[in-house]
Amino acid sequence: MAARHDLVILAVDAACPDAQLLLDALSDALLRINGDSGRSSFDAEAATPRGGFYLARDASGALLGCAALRPLGEADSSIGELKRMYARPGSTGVGAALLAHVEAQARRHGYQAVYLSTRVANTRAVAFYARHGYTPVVAWGKYVGAAQSTCLGKTL
Q1: Per-residue buried b or exposed e for 129-147, using 16+ beta carbons within 10 Å of the residue's own CB
Q2: Angle at 94 between CA 29 and CA 6, to 5 degrees
Q3: Domains and CATH numbers, the chain
Q4: What global pTM score does this model have?
C-alpha cells in the first residue's frame, strides 16, 4: 500500500473540538457495527507522557482520522495500547498512515509492542489489523472473557 504524502498527522489534545468531531463519528460508526459506541473505553482526559492523541488531515486541512496511544496499564510498561483508531470513509490510506504513526510514536516512547482490542463483529477492523501484522494476544482487563472482543498485538 502506497504511503499518503498529502497527510499531516499531529498530536493534539483529545478534548479539542476537532478531536471530538472525529471521536463522535467513530462512536456513531461503532454503535452501528457493534451495538456499542466504545466511548466507555477511552478517557480523553487521560493524558500521559508515554502516549498521545493524533489527528490526520489532508493538505487542505480537512479532518481525515484519529488514533490514540497510551500505556496498556500499570502491569507492563513495555506495551502501548492503541485506542480510538478511526479513518473517515473514503479516506484511502489514512488508517495505514495513522497506524504507522502510532507505531513510530510507541517505539519513541520505549514500548516493545502495541496491543488493541476491537469487536469481533467489526470484521473490517479485524482484517485491517491482520494485514498490518497484528495477531491474537492474551486478553487483559475488561476484555478477559469478553467473547464479543478480540485482542490483537504486534511486536515492534
Answers
A1: beeeebeebeebeebeeee
A2: 140
A3: 8-111 (3.40.630.30)
A4: 0.85
From residue 156, how far is each of 26, 36, 102, 123, 133 by CA, in Å?
A: 26, 30, 11, 24, 10
Please report, in angstroms and rounded to a whole number, the separation of the first and last CA atoms in the chain: 19
3-state secondary structure 92-151: CCHHHHHHHHHHHHHHHCCCCEEEEEEECCCHHHHHHHHHCCCEECCCCHHHCCCCCEEE
What are the two backbone dihedrals, phi and then psi, of residue 70, each rounded to the nearest 5 degrees? Answer: -150, 165
CA of 74: how far to CAs of 28, 71, 111, 141, in Å? Answer: 30, 8, 13, 11
pLDDT tens for residues 15-63? 899 998 888 888 777 677 666 555 555 565 555 678 899 999 998 999 9
Phi and psi (nearest 5°) for 116? -155, 165
